[in-house]
Amino acid sequence: MNTNVPMKQSLIALSVLSAISITSLPVMAQEVQGSQAKTEEQQEPMESIVVTGRSVSYANSASSAEMKKQQTPMTSALALIDNLPGVLVTEGDPFGSDEWSTSISIRGFELNLASQQIGMTVDGISNGNSNYGGGTKASRYIDTENLRATEVSQGTADIGSRSNEALGGTLDFTTILPAFDEQLTVSTTLGEYNAKKVYVRYDTGEIAQDTFAWLTISSQQNDDYMGGSITNSRDHAEGKIISRIGDVNLTAYISYDDAQEYTYQRIYGLAQYEQNPDWDGLTEVWTGVPYQDQVWREGWITERENLFTYVKADFTLGEVDVSSNVYYHENEGAGKWIPYYMVDVIDDGAGNANSELDASSTVYGGASQGLIYFVDRAGQSLSPIEGCASSIGFPYGGAGAALDPGCYEQGAMPVSSNRHTHYNKKRYGINADFKWNTSIAGMENTVRGGFWYEDYQRDEYRDWHKTIDAASSPRAENNPYWVQYDREFPVETLMYYVEDEMDAGFAKFRLGAKKFNVEVVKEDQFTPANDLSVSSDSDTLLSAGFVAPMPLRGLEVFGGYAENFAAIKDAVLERDDTDLSLVEPETADNIDFGLRYSSPGFNASITYYKIKFENRITFVSNEDVNGIDFLEAAAGGYINDGGIESDGIEASVDYNFTDNFGIYVSYTKNDATYTDEAYRGNTVLGSAKDMAVVSFDFSKGDFYAGFSTKYVGERYLDQANTQKTDSYIVSDLYIGKTAYDIGGAIDSIELSFTVNNVFDQDYLGSIAPSAGWIGAPRIAALNAKFVL
């Protein structure tokens, strides 16, 4: 990095000490699963997780084994939490193969293209932001078949969570543990829309004293469900090893993911959706008319590679339990579109050929001087026939004569571009936590503390390539005619916290504080005058809470308060004219109060929450009903635009009628409204006031089945609340059976059949300002899993 941030030097000693501790770490004994030759539970310890959450002073819940069975092994890891109270996950692709159309909503907070207000961690480690351009959601790190569970900490969350996006809570995705015995698992999934997946996991058993590991590889693909003209693909590898060396527990993990995804387009308003609720407006055929070929589906591409690894140590120093880890993450890829023009970036003079058509030269930086639509054979720009009326009516309401080939003399040649935005991000970090159990005046007392330090640099540049012959194909020149920009974003984060919890007998009380120091810089590689920097530090953030047992065994009351914080993102610095004096970090005050009951066969919880969210950073979208602003030249930027107030109730019940039959019910009542003057009192766009889930699950011996239904209430498409979507109901079905004692080398065979959106409900899923993505249709998939 080229920034001078004093905190980096102050952490060198801590980094060295933590790195030394990593040389001797093992596995906690309780993490090693017992040998159960005829069951899969040893790979999937989710069975033991209570949906209603842990006994803490804030609302939390976790995914269950049944929730995992409701989704196919190809489905995104994000989809498994959709039935938890307060959570709404929407994805445009049936298998989650499109981050562009993915969103998560919790208590009026959003994680989508425009906002990152929900924290996300993998095995407790920061995911490195969740934005589309250079960010990474947990679904990029973890194969769904390697997902142990996901804990959702709504609102106040845990004070030690590693995220500076956690305004509305944290999602912690945890990976499975190695099996006790050596075994090989082969899983194959086949589904509609040419969906295929092959997954192989090898559990080593004990390869050295107290040392166990697993390694997986998988490959999957699926076509788009609208026309079947493109194929999404994902190749993934993962591994984990746990060991005990002396008195130290060691965990090491690595993940590699290579995905090529084709994005769906958002629907601009309810009128377009009602016109055809099964089509997003992208086309399957290359027409040779650049204005229409901008929505050619194969031209909307996202390519991403992710490498993530960490080493973790858990040990005890005297009376203090210590946990530390170091991690590294690298992300690179590109987002691609096909603008319907070439950009004029060189003043060639009137009547001269456009030198941008010369594939041997490249212009670095500069600004657009105009757009080139049609040229003659000599490369000179042409004008349409005077008085010609365009016949182009699609897309985005149609085009004028300058974009219609029918309005030019014979011999006019259309031109267009392939626009590529390249992302690269490298980050490394270190975490350390301690816990000291002692007593004060005869009362048990626990002191916790720790820090998180991360250093990352995100590089981004955009180049434009001439389409070789726009009339016949999308193929582009390899050498770009223009590199629009090239910039680097170094960011440093330091979070540190301390918390004390005292058990007074009649209740446990906790009080804590934490603080963030975040330095964000933009370094323009072409024009240093455009460099920007901002210190996005938080105030001291307080948290407090209590948990008190009630006279009824298993019943407890809890309450919590937390001041949450989201730092200014590097994306805010992207525009050269950004006035950073107008932007402050986002903050939220969260209050939880509830009851939680836990007993064998029956678990329930109800939480009331109240949140005040201030300094909401608003982004002016680069897309509108008139089409895509490929140059991002439209006026707009980032400002703090008021805030949000929300309050509501989250409730869930998990009850087993018998040893074989159970029901899970969750309900959310959420009232999230804007506080800024222009939209004061209006419902937050994309947030549903009512959500409910009813899920029935049955298992007997080797057979299992279940049926789940989720209701999502009406939502608004815009802040002005002028467009409201219909409520919808989506149901999922699963059925499966495991056969043992097959003979030979096969220990077991498991067959499972899953149908998502059973009744093929039409609905708008993810919501963006004045737009939304079509929800995924019905999808059926069959999985066969062999354990050898």
Poorly predicted residue ranges: 1-50
Number of helices: 6
- Helical proportion, percent range: under 10%
Extended strand count: 42
Distance between the termini: 49 Å
What's the layout of helices and strands?
Blueprint: H1 6-10, H2 12-21, E1 60-62, H3 65-69, E2 87-90, E3 103-106, E4 109-111, E5 119-122, E6 125-126, H4 138-141, E7 147-154, E8 169-175, E9 183-191, E10 195-208, E11 211-223, E12 231-245, E13 248-262, H5 270-275, H6 290-293, E14 301-317, E15 320-337, E16 342-343, E17 363-364, E18 371-372, E19 374-375, E20 413-414, E21 417-440, E22 443-466, E23 482-503, E24 508-524, E25 532-535, E26 541-549, E27 555-566, E28 586-599, E29 602-614, E30 617-619, E31 623-624, E32 627-628, E33 638-640, E34 643-656, E35 661-674, E36 690-700, E37 703-712, E38 728-743, E39 746-756, E40 764-768, E41 771-774, E42 779-787
Parallel strand pairs: 5-8, 17-23
Antiparallel strand pairs: 1-7, 2-3, 3-4, 5-6, 7-8, 9-10, 9-42, 10-11, 11-12, 12-13, 13-14, 14-15, 15-21, 16-18, 19-20, 21-22, 22-23, 23-24, 24-25, 24-26, 26-27, 27-28, 28-29, 29-34, 30-33, 31-32, 34-35, 35-36, 36-37, 37-38, 38-39, 39-42, 40-41
Structure description:
This protein has six helices and 42 strands. The protein is globular. By secondary structure, it is mostly beta strands. The longest helix is centred in the first third of the chain and has 10 residues, at 12-21. It is 4% helix and 49% strand. The strands form eight sheets. It has a 22-stranded antiparallel beta barrel. Strands 1-7-8-5-6 form a five-stranded mixed beta sheet, with no helix packed on it. A three-stranded antiparallel beta sheet has the order 2-3-4, with no helix packed on it.
